[in-house]
Design goal:
single chain, about 220 residues, mainly beta, eight-stranded antiparallel β-barrel, about 10% helix, elongated
Length: about 220
């Protein structure tokens, strides 16, 4: 059973660009407020240190064509680096993001791939073949009738600069040579939250939105 390129690209996107820092809450760097802060806007100007990041595992799509019922169990992100926003509308961010992903291939899709043991061994071999390029490490083991896998991705570099604007609770960044990208944010004291919200859901009670991802930066 092979994982499609869409799988790898969607997972690697968890930290490649500044806007996607808020994507991928199923795991993170330890901030107790990660994923619990609503968009509120605020003053971005200053220097910030990447602190933690989390993603709602249930919202991530593996896209394994041979196993559409595959599910993400957890995703852990550990971003490091710095970001800067100036008063004249320029920004920059440099650092990296370590991502660990755990997912399950259930029995209903493994049966058509030769059975749990055979299919799980094939996925394990596929991951091992990409250790050193896509992955730092990875493995799959049989758990009952399912196949449980964990992959540690090679650190994803973040190196971006350009211009930004804010409107309400949204910051729009335009990296040099790239198109504009927008995300919600909230500045609370010495913390900056870059927040991904579920745009398909209507606003809930007390004007809240569902948070799918939250990257936390602290004032330096």
């Amino acid at each position: 059973m092979k994982m499609s390129s869409r799988v790898r690209l969607s997972l690697l996107a968890l930290g490649v660009s500044f806007a996607s820092l808020s994507s991928g809450c199923g795991g993170g760097g330890g901030a107790t407020t990660c994923g619990k802060v609503q968009p509120c806007g605020g003053n971005l100007v200053g220097s910030w240190k990447l602190s933690s990041s989390c993603s709602d595992a249930a919202s991530l799509e593996l896209g394994i064509t041979a196993c559409p019922t595959a599910r993400v169990d957890s995703v852990s992100q550990k971003p490091t680096g710095t970001a800067s926003f100036t008063a004249n509308g320029a920004y920059s961010v440099i650092g990296s993001n370590d991502v660990t992903l755990s997912f399950t291939l259930p029995a209903d899709c493994l049966a058509a791939q030769g059975g749990t043991a055979t299919a799980c061994a094939a996925v394990h071999a596929g991951i091992q073949a990409e250790v050193g390029s896509t992955y730092k490490s990875g493995s799959c083991v049989v758990k009952g009738a399912d196949c449980s896998c964990t992959t540690v991705f090679n650190p994803q570099a973040i190196d971006e600069a350009g211009t930004y604007t804010t409107e309400g609770t949204v910051v729009t960044t335009t990296a040099t040579g790239d198109t504009a990208s927008s995300t919600d944010y909230c500045v609370q004291g010495s913390s900056l939250h870059m927040i991904q919200v579920d745009a398909t859901m209507t606003m809930g009670a007390m004007g809240t939105v569902k948070v799918l991802g939250d990257t936390v930066l602290t004032k330096s």
